[in-house]
């Protein structure tokens, strides 16, 4: 199929996950990837994407996106301050101007929008209660998209993503540095998805995402954070991290890390079946067996 006759997809925020998505879709689609760095052009072309120079913080630089593609995959995080996601607003203003209308938009959000539930289970119908500024910006982005999409005839799929891991995204350095974890009685549940699985699910959403639908894109595991660190340490033949009570650990870690460690929830993934894409790694333990450094 000629690249000119292929359906067009625009990826916003083409980092590690975006590159994996581009690799998977480039055979069947013409992929455009927004980047603010010319230095990344060669990398993006190597995975079959056409790089587009622009910066979500500079609306005047985004004019090339107008009318470019009927499907948009929005992976870009909000800016680092404030309660509103200005980047998403800048993007939507440009997309609304195109003569070729956007028909589908996949937004990759975060399970952080649920906030702390003291270890209780949450689902897609659980009301959001963001506690950190970054989570509040994500909720703002979701709400902005939910208002914009129906008004423009766009099928919106929101994928809420937990902690992403891969061989190059494991807490090995943290474990080697002997950063403590919480004692089990005070530890928080963490939720995960493997990078390649996430990329496959994003690709699946371009075909199977239902209109105005939220999907928790996680493996459904119920592992406490300290146990996760222990699993990684065992796989790499490292000493497990020490454990401390919350009152002692809070004094040793950054406020951002502490906010992650204190939010505890078990995220269910029953809607994941809608994407018709079984996980290759339904648990961290299964993935770690494939890369274990421990003889």
From TrEMBL:
Cellular component, GO annotation: cytoplasm
CDD domains: SDR_a4
Residues annotated as signal peptide: none
Gene Ontology molecular function terms on file: aldehyde dehydrogenase (NAD+) activity
Xref: Pfam families: NAD_binding_10
Taxonomic superkingdom: Bacteria
Residue runs in coiled coils: none
Residues of the NAD(P)-binding domain: 15-205
Matches recorded under PANTHER family: NAD(P)-BINDING DOMAIN-CONTAINING PROTEIN-RELATED (PTHR48079:SF6), PROTEIN YEEZ (PTHR48079)
Protein name: NAD(P)-dependent oxidoreductase
Organism from which the protein derives: Polynucleobacter antarcticus
């Amino acid at each position: 199929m000629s690249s000119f006759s292929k359906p067009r997809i625009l990826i916003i925020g083409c980092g590690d996950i975006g590159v994996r998505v581009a690799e998977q879709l480039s055979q069947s689609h013409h992929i455009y990837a927004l980047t603010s760095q010319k230095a990344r052009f060669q990398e993006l072309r190597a995975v079959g994407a056409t790089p587009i120079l622009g910066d979500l913080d500079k609306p005047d630089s985004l004019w090339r996106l107008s009318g470019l593609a009927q499907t948009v995959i929005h992976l870009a995080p909000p800016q680092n301050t404030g309660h509103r996601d200005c980047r998403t607003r800048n993007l939507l203003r440009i997309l609304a101007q195109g003569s070729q209308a956007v028909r589908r938009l996949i937004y990759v959000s975060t399970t952080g929008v649920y906030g702390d539930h003291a270890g209780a289970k949450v689902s897609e119908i659980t009301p959001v209660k963001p506690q950190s500024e970054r989570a509040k910006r994500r909720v703002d982005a979701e709400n902005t998209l939910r208002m914009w999409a129906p008004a423009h005839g766009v099928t919106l799929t929101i994928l809420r993503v937990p902690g992403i891991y891969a061989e190059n995204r494991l807490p090995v350095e943290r474990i080697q540095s002997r950063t403590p974890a919480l004692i089990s009685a005070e530890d928080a549940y963490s939720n995960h998805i493997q990078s390649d699985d996430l990329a496959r699910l994003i690709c699946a959403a371009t075909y199977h995402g239902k209109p105005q639908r939220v999907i928790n894109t996680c493996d459904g595991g119920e592992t406490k954070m300290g146990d996760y660190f222990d699993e990684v340490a065992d796989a790499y033949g490292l000493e497990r991290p020490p454990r401390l009570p919350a009152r002692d650990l809070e004094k040793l870690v950054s406020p951002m890390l502490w906010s992650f460690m204190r939010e505890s929830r078990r995220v269910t993934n029953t809607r994941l079946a809608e994407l018709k894409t079984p996980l290759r790694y339904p648990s961290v333990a299964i993935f770690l067996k494939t890369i274990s450094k421990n003889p």
